[in-house]
Amino acid sequence: MTVPDVPETVVRRFTDNGCEVTSVVNEPADAQQVLYGNVTRDGVLVGSYYPADRVRQSDWRIVTADGDHLCLGGHPVTAPYEGDAVFVLTTILTARESHEVERLLRDATRPPRR
Fold first, then answer.
1. Cα-flanking dihedrals φ and ψ of residue 106, to 5°?
2. Using one digit for the tens of pLDDT, what is the confidence trace for 82-97?
3. Can you tell me the distance from the alpha carbon of 65 to that of 78, in angstroms, rounded to the nearest whole number?
4. What is the rounded CA–CA span in Å between residue 64 and residue 49?
5. Residue 90 carries which DSSP code?
6. From which domain of life does this come (predicted)?
7. Could you tell me which of 85, 6, 26 has the C-alpha nearest to residue 51?
8. Prediction pTM value
9. What's the CA gap between 70 and 18, in Å, rounded?
């Protein structure tokens, strides 16, 4: 009896802007698909992220520490790339004031000027 190929899963950690970012990666030797990640600051959960399209590794969803998807103006905030989701969690959601968070989030999600 042969054993089916089981994808290897690893945990990767790094620090960004004083936050610890942890991601779970499937098949690190080949496709390197991130299944999900979370961000903590001083041991407290800031939030987590995951790709809505795992195959293409796109349309990253951001979940706040209270378990809700991050929304702006009643619409869920999505990030095109994993790094963008990490940026939102490590930079924007760690801002001190709620009005500062909204301003930073609007600036980060505004389309670039041409």
1. -60, -45
2. 999 999 899 877 765 5
3. 16
4. 9
5. I
6. Bacteria
7. 85
8. 0.77
9. 21
Q: Residue ranges per domain, the chain?
A: 9-109
Q: What secondary structure, in 3-state letters, does 3-36 show?
A: CCCCCCEEEEEEEECCEEEEEEEECCCCCCEEEE
Q: Tokens 């089981």 correspond to what residue?
A: 6
Segment 41-55, tens digit of pLDDT: 999 999 999 999 888
Return the SS3 of 114. Answer: coil
Residue 107, both tokens: 């600036």
Residue type, 59: D
Cβ atoms of 102 and 110 closer than 8 Å? no
**Residue whose token pair is 């609007």:** 106
Q: Which token pair is 111?
A: 């389309």
